[in-house]
User: What shape does this take?
Amino acid sequence: MIALNRFLKSDTDLNTHFKTLFKNFFLVFAAFIILFSFAGSVNAITDEASFRTAITDGGTITLTGQTIMLTYADGGSPSTAIVINKDIILTGDGTIQVIGDFRHFSVSSGVTFTLDDKVTLTHINPDEDGGGVYVSHGGTFNMKGGKISGNSYTYSGSDTPASGGGGVLNFGTFTMTGGTISDNTVTGDHSSWPVGAGGGVFNVGTFTLVDGEISKNTAEGATQWQTPGGAGGGVFNIGIFNMEGGKISDNDVNRYGGGVANAGTFTLTGGEINTNAALWDTLNNPLGAGGGVYNNGTFLMNSGMISSNEVD
Assistant: This one.
């Protein structure tokens, strides 16, 4: 009996020992995983080279307060800092700045690029020419958060009329459910194409605005007296534009459509288009038209609000 009690006691001690070892192993393993993940997220993206490598690899890229400078274009038409050829989610908190006359990203056909959280795409010098994101035919851009701000685009002699978009130029599928496109500018060049179109967004494909804000963007015509002026301070559409929510506000143009200029199909079912302006430019144009919306296509308004826009 004494031997049996000793065996049972030793067996209980053994179980307790193994439980303690397993618990300690689990805690150490969990801590290792957390530290490894944290170190990877902080140290993986440190400069332009590591950012470009991450884009090439594809997947989720999380910024943690960095400012990444893109200093050269690697191809694309229009000229682009980075051509995205794999699905990418760019999230976290940080800034991508372009130094030079080219766009940030070109999204290839069959590829999805998602911008989320608090990431900002901007030019270090707003006078540099390039714009934000270009979406190719068959490409997809989902903007869930972040900001595209402080970019500009000027038509050059090699551009076609279907070019522009200080913030986004879309030939594919662009869905905006959050974030801000603001303080971007597009300008026409009289020698090539006099209309500056789509200060915030130039849409040729399908653009759906669910939420978020397109604000304080500008579309300008060239400075010669004969030019027709700008079109679409916030959005210029020659494709399919569905506005289900969000806000288009405080944009301006020196001719057609302070908020939206539409030459395609525009369906408004929610959201607000307000405090935009189509201004009279005494040098270029005799009259601004469509402070909120200028329509030269198909415009269906089922709901939403258009208010407090200005024509001067």
The mean pLDDT is 83. Residues 60-311 form one domain. The chain has two domains: 1-43, 60-311.
